[in-house]
Write a structure and sequence with these properties.
The complex is a heterodimer of chains A (247) and B (281).
Chain A lengths: L6 E5 L3 E5 L6 H15 L8 E6 L2 E6 L6 H14 L10 E6 L9 H7 L4 H9 L3 E6 L6 E4 L14 E4 L3 E5 L2 E4 L4 E3 L2 E5 L20 E6 L2 H13 L4 H5 L5
Chain B lengths: L1 E5 L3 E5 L19 H10 L8 E5 L4 E4 L3 E14 L2 E2 L6 E3 L4 E17 L29 E2 L24 E6 L8 H9 L2 E7 L3 E4 L13 E2 L4 E4 L5 E4 L6 E2 L3 E5 L1 H8 L6 E6 L3
Parallel strand pairs in B: 10-18
Antiparallel strand pairs in B: 1-4, 1-9, 2-3, 3-8, 4-8, 5-6, 5-7, 5-8, 10-17, 11-12, 11-18, 12-15, 13-16, 14-15, 14-17
Classes of the chains: A alpha+beta (247), B mainly beta (281).
């Protein structure tokens, strides 16, 4: 029998938590994303269950009524033994335009100093990387991105800002990301991405999915303004313009 | 239409909230006190998921442009229809053109005002619950008009219920949360033997407690959180997540409130006391 890699824990009387080993690793993410899909098309349909996959855990929430923990536990372990493993499709790559500029990224210069490089060096390092999407949470459309190079791992700000504008691109410790809405925040702000990441009028509301990768492309102020308008009216085209499509 | 003439302190439209979008970071939202909401919709013989007004601390002034039937439940709120002072948990017929004057929520924190047929605003992502930025606004303002169905011939099977007075309860039944094992004996003792006081930081996203536990250095990888999850910050602060709370978080999840405890908590305000009781529900 295939060993079950996760521990199960009850999470209140309506949810159950599956925890893989506590590591940020792509193999773990793909295994749990694949398992979630396997469950949705099997004994845990989305009409009855909500799924929250993030990093090394998968939370299943029963939509109506309490769950029977012992039975659910058994059913999930049994399902894993039938699960053939993740498929080979490994998500899309999305290239997001960012205007790196002190006007939009007031910490750009201090962040570069903290990383021991000049501003151009920081932009090169930040745009050179593909970042894996390990989760969406905290705020609607907020991406948890992994894969920040060690050189760019600078501490978060000692005092958070009360107001971080929508689209701000930040760096903090092992994380980089985009604020999908205006919110308070303690990350070092290095630029702004004009493409909205969350749109409640669209289905799904986020075009980026878990398991995808995100890259950043440095754009000028005039390109930023153009992409902002394209993003607002929903005509910004990732696939054709910037070769994001894998097909 | 139901017109908001004066919004009071904080009033918003809520139903049972959104499912299916938590993995995009969209909180469940929905009424904070489901027991109160259930009483409103039961008396009005509405489906339990119908939307109503959630009113915090100081109620609104509302004008009914169509005849309606209403029920108020949850916290004990002053309300007048003309000269008549209204009781909680009781069905009232409201004539066309009438103005409902709501005053303070005298006991508890949140009152629920429902109408026969429910509030019929346009659902967004499967729910009428207001939550910015999913809905264009997170609360109602003066001049807002909410679609409601006229109701004249309704003869309720039950005219009133005796009030639940949930706001009198202080004990929150909890189950251990996923990281409960991280707590040592003294911390567990403190958790279950302290009478906690609600701090000022208290809204539909989260509610903090004034008394703290010892600071800790436990680290965890960000994972899912639910309404009713009790998080412990490294400084020892306890944060109780409410319906609009974040869907994921990086603080250890020490407890999970029962459904009833979440309703009790929804009726607590700054300075009120609560204690935790371990219960297998």
């Amino acid at each position: 029998m295939k060993p079950v890699p996760f521990h199960l824990k009850p999470f209140g009387n309506r949810a159950v938590l599956l925890e893989w080993p506590a590591e940020v690793r792509e193999e773990i993410l793909f295994d749990l994303l694949g398992f979630a899909d396997f469950l949705k098309f099997g004994d845990f349909p989305e009409s009855e269950w909500e799924f929250i996959p993030i990093y090394h855990s998968l939370t299943l929430i029963r939509k109506a009524g309490d769950l029977h923990y012992a039975e659910t536990h058994k059913a999930l372990e049994a399902a894993y033994t039938r699960y053939p493993g993740p498929t080979d499709t490994v998500g899309q790559h999305w290239e997001l335009p960012v205007h790196y500029d002190p006007e939009f990224g007031p910490d750009l210069e201090t962040a570069a100093q903290a990383a021991g490089m000049d501003v151009d060096g920081l932009i090169r390092a930040h745009t050179a990387q593909a970042y894996r999407v390990y989760g969406i949470g905290f705020l609607p459309g907020f991406l948890y991105l992994g894969g920040v190079p060690e050189l760019l791992q600078i501490p978060r700000k000692a005092t958070p800002r009360l107001r971080v504008p929508k689209g701000s691109v930040g760096l903090a410790a092992q994380q980089t990301g985009i604020y999908p809405q205006e919110s308070p925040g303690g990350w070092n702000l290095i630029g702004n991405c004009p493409i909205p990441l969350f749109n409640p009028g669209q289905s799904p509301p986020c075009f980026i999915s878990l398991g995808d990768t995100v890259g950043f492309r440095s754009v000028s102020r005039s390109e930023f303004d153009l992409h902002r308008i394209e993003g607002e009216v929903g005509v910004y085209d990732f696939k054709k313009k910037y070769g994001n499509a894998k097909d | 239409m139901l017109r908001i003439k004066r919004p009071g302190f904080y009033v918003c439209v809520q139903d049972y909230g959104r499912t299916d979008f938590r993995h995009y970071g969209v909180p469940r939202s929905g009424v904070a006190d489901r027991l109160a909401a259930a009483r409103v919709n039961s008396l009005l013989e509405n489906p339990e998921t119908d939307a109503m007004l959630e009113i915090v601390m100081q109620g609104p002034e509302l004008e009914f442009e169509v005849p309606s039937h209403i029920v108020i439940s949850g916290g004990w709120m002053e309300a007048w229809l003309g000269d008549e002072a209204l009781e909680m948990d009781r069905v009232y017929a409201v004539p066309k053109g009438a103005v409902l004057q709501c005053g303070r929520v005298r006991s508890g924190f949140r009152a629920y005002l429902g109408v026969k047929g429910g509030i019929r605003t346009k659902p967004v992502m499967g729910s009428r619950s207001q939550f910015f930025p999913v809905t264009p606004a997170g609360k109602l303002v003066a001049g807002d008009a909410l679609p409601i169905e006229p109701s004249e011939a309704f003869e309720p099977k039950l005219l009133k219920l005796s009030p639940l007075e949930l706001y009198r309860e202080v004990t929150l039944d909890v189950a251990p949360g996923p990281e409960f094992e991280l707590l040592d004996e003294p911390a567990r003792d403190a958790l279950f033997n302290t009478v906690f006081t609600l701090a000022k930081e208290h809204d539909r996203m989260a509610c903090q407690l004034q008394e703290t536990l010892p600071p800790h250095t436990h680290r965890m990888i960000t994972s899912a959180t639910l309404p009713g999850t009790v998080q412990l910050t490294p400084a020892g602060k306890l944060i109780l997540l409410m319906p609009d709370g974040q869907t994921t978080g990086g603080y250890p999840r020490m407890l999970q409130l029962s459904a009833r405890a979440q309703s009790i908590l929804a009726q607590k305000k700054f300075g009120d006391r609560v204690r935790f009781r371990e219960d297998s529900f």
